[in-house]
Amino acid sequence: MNATQAVLDWIAAHPYQTAFQIVNGVIICTPAAATVPVLAALGFGANGPIAEVAQPLAEFTIIGHNTYLWTSPSYTSSSPLVLLFAWNAAAAKHIAKYTLSYQRLFPTSKIVLQRCYTSDMFTRSANYAALLTPAMNITHQHITAGGSVLVQSFSNGGGNQVNEFAKAWKRKYGSRLPMQVQIMDSSPTKGPWMKSHAAISAGLPRTWFWKWFGGLLVHVLLLGSFLVNMIRGKENKMVVLCREMNDETVFDNSVPRVYLYSRVDEMVGCEEVEEHAAIAKRKEWDVTMVRFEKSAHCGHVREDEQKYWGAILKAWKSSERK
After folding, report:
1. Where are the transmembrane segments (predicted)?
2. Are 18 and 33 within 8 A, CB to CB?
């Protein structure tokens, strides 16, 4: 029995215990203490941080526009495919903390990573499909061979990309994107001005120019976007994204969905995530909410790795039984 299966079996035998509260009919849970020793055996601590990586993403091959691929030497058609949609301007060293964990938890898997930058957020849907084609082809080959898919997106940057991916998939193949589990980290938000400003500013270069003028230029960008939308009579793109992420004609509402979020996230309000999850629940999604108390945006795993990965593995294991 490999280490991953041992973790999954342990979590199945020691299910979650409710630790927080019921919000809009959705139970917010935390992992049972019994999962701690097993996840710890794989190197996942309760208080992070995960060790830095010398050459992050060096084992990945670039196969398209911001698209990276890693395939385990032990990969087979029955192995999982992990589709990762990173947050805006995420550094390779930060992304690697997740890819390395997935490689440990699913050692025979294939991982497709789609990175995101601010320009991608303003790319029209009509132009997005071509950019996502390499990732879509890999995913289609895997599913056609009978493999399962775990999808995780981070923030609205990753949420926008998985949304465009799902829409492009339906246009091309005529079906909803086949997923076994959908994980949403630090999303979604409707993009209020200052939260959008904080999110975009976080991805700016660290040079003196951007430190002095970056904040102002981001305000100009947001103002320009607002005026264009007003003239064209269009909604805020982030408001549309929130609605489309709960569109059951694009996303399969029989797929378990896990929201990982923080009470103190300065870019995505916890009330926004809980509102979105409540809407999904009303539309018959199987929703699990895992709230962290002190973590920053896209940094929940640093607060408690066992809680973070335990939530993902439990959802994966439970979906295998369906």
Report:
1. 208-228
2. no
